[in-house]
Specification:
Helix 1 (2-69) packs antiparallel against helix 2. The protein is rod-shaped. The protein is built from 2 helices and 13 strands. The termini are far apart. It is an alpha+beta fold. It has helices at 2-69, 95-105; strands spanning 113-118, 127-128, 165-173, 194-202, 215-220, 225-227, 236-242, 252-258, 272-279, 291-292, 296-303, 319-330, 336-347. It folds into 2 domains: 12-202, no CATH class; 215-347, Sandwich (Immunoglobulin-like), CATH 2.60.40.
């Protein structure tokens, strides 16, 4: 009985030692696991916050592209695509300012860079348009958009419809105020990372052709030849004739034309002007058919028909020379419009039948 009692005591002691050993292992495992669990929890929180910021930057990029896509190309009124993302943009109107406002409403800092590209004139692939000066300049915040073969060049079917695109890239640094650097204590810092998103959208307003306004001044006219109506703007006919039974003292009519009243919605200057004169046979023009590429077309001479009189016993048919003065105005996007002014000069019999 005594031996059995001792064995029972030894068994109980061994059980207690084993239990203590297991508790020690559990405590040791827990001590080892705590940092890993903390890192795991912090990593989940960190990447959740980064994912949220990533979505907000993507939304900011879409917001900026939408703003740029709604602006007329090279519009004379600010803001416009020409200066929309440059330091010369109007105060509180630049694309970067608007995007930074959007980010700040989400509780984020201003972007480290915004890049605007476009092919608004439909002539070239997307090209940079003076990206806004970078305010914060981390080494990896250059806002260079990725190569995007899916972005088509402009298509101009029959020269009637213009398709163009804008591409906006936004970069945001993961500074402490944007995403807490929770893992920096464990050697996994995100402070030097930049989230970047690019959005491409079609430009909504089509390029409009110039609006042409032409004025004309009659500089010289033969005696007894007088205008029969006012000079029309476009597609009108300006008539000059003499009264039946009157003679002329010259065979030249001189007119000055002016196209300075022409305008274009997309640009306030830099329009191209081309003037040409054509004549219907057999109407001649002294010195040939002139042309000019300026805003004015001065001193244009038109030949006056000779007196059709052959004798004083009959009334000869009048003779008319017809001319067309064409002004073609072209904007920076290769959109053009033309205006035709028709000039008719008539000479009637100076000695009609009595």
């Amino acid at each position: 009985m005594q031996r059995r009692g001792r064995q029972s005591e030894f068994g109980s002691l061994r059980s207690r030692l084993r239990a203590r050993k297991r508790r020690g292992v559990v405590v040791l495992e827990f001590i080892i696991a705590i940092p890993l669990l903390i890192i795991l929890v912090l990593a989940v929180i960190e990447f959740a916050l980064i994912f949220k910021v990533n979505q907000q930057v993507a939304a900011a990029s879409k917001y900026g592209a939408k703003l740029a896509s709604e602006i007329s190309r090279f519009h004379a009124d600010n803001p416009n695509l020409r200066n929309f993302n440059t330091a010369s943009a109007p105060s509180n109107q630049s694309l970067k300012y608007r995007i930074d406002q959007f980010l700040q409403q989400q509780g984020l800092t201003a972007s480290c860079g915004v890049r605007l590209e476009h092919n608004a004139c439909g002539m070239l692939p997307l090209t940079p348009n003076q990206p806004y000066p970078v305010i914060a300049n981390p080494s990896n915040c250059d806002c260079t958009p990725p190569n995007d073969p899916q972005v088509p060049n402009a298509v101009l079917p029959n020269g009637e419809t213009e398709v163009a695109y804008v591409r906006v890239t936004v970069g945001l640094p993961l500074v402490e105020s944007n995403v807490p650097d929770l893992l920096s204590y464990f050697g996994f810092s995100v402070e030097n990372f930049v989230i970047q998103h690019t959005t491409t959208m079609r430009i909504e307003p089509n390029n409009t052709p110039p609006d042409i306004v032409v004025t004309g001044v009659l500089v010289s006219v033969p005696a007894n030849h007088t205008p029969q109506n006012d000079m029309q703007n476009c597609d009108g006919t300006f008539q000059i004739t003499n009264a039946l039974g009157t003679t002329t003292n010259s065979h030249i009519v001189t007119i000055d034309f002016n196209g300075n009243g022409s305008s274009d919605l997309e640009q306030s200057s830099g329009l191209g002007y081309l003037w040409t004169v054509s004549a219907e046979s057999p109407a001649p023009t002294p010195g040939g058919l002139p042309s000019n590429n300026g805003t004015t077309f001065n001193g244009i001479q038109f030949a006056v028909p000779n007196d059709p009189n052959t004798n004083g016993t009959t009334t000869e048919d009048e003779v008319t020379y017809s001319y067309t003065v064409t002004l073609t105005v072209t904007d920076s996007c290769s959109q053009s419009a033309s205006c035709d002014i028709h000039v008719e000069i008539t000479t009637r019999d100076s000695s009609p039948a009595p």
